[in-house]
Amino acid sequence: MRAKPRIPLWRWALWWVVLVVADVVFYVLMTPVWIGLRTLAWVAEFRARRG
Question: Looking at the whole model, is its pTM more than 0.85?
Answer without folding.
Answer: no
